């Protein structure tokens, strides 16, 4: 059974305050947040949802990528902050290890 990215997003909606307890990235004094793979698996990059001034803008809780962990399993990589998506640090379909940097977001 094939699942579309829109189905994944709608089926896994998370309230922004619930993300405060989730560990989806590293924080530092630098105004960027690094998003890391929660598990080893195959990286699937989600299409952009919104642009502003030529940059992709992400909201708190927005899914940036999916890490497929088994035939029917997956984990969403969500942005814990609002800001500009700086880069995705991998290719669609690439195998990733747990804790590997997947993307970075420049916080607002």
In short:
With 108 residues, the protein is mainly beta. The protein is 6% helix and 41% strand.
Question: What's the helical proportion of residues?
Answer: under 10%
Question: What is the number of beta strands?
Answer: 10
Overall pLDDT metric: 82
- SS element count, helices: 1
Largest sheet: 6 strands, antiparallel
Question: Rough shape?
Answer: globular
Strand content: 35-45%
Strand order of the largest sheet: 1-2-10-8-5-4
- CATH architecture descriptor: Beta Barrel
CATH topology description: OB fold (Dihydrolipoamide Acetyltransferase, E2P)
* Count of the separate structural domains: 1
Q: How would you portray this structure in words?
A:
With 108 residues, the chain is mainly β. The protein has one domain (5-107): RNA polymerase II/Efflux pump adaptor protein, barrel-sandwich hybrid domain (OB fold (Dihydrolipoamide Acetyltransferase, E2P)). The chain has one helix at 5-11, and strands at residues 25-26, 32-36, 41-45, 51-52, 55-58, 63-68, 74-78, 83-88, 95-96, 101-107. The strands form two sheets. A six-stranded antiparallel beta sheet has the order 1-2-10-8-5-4, with no helix packed on it. It has a four-stranded antiparallel beta sheet with strand order 7-6-3-9, with no helix packed on it. The radius of gyration is 13 Å and the shape is globular. 22% of the residues are buried. The model has no long low-confidence stretch (mean pLDDT 82).
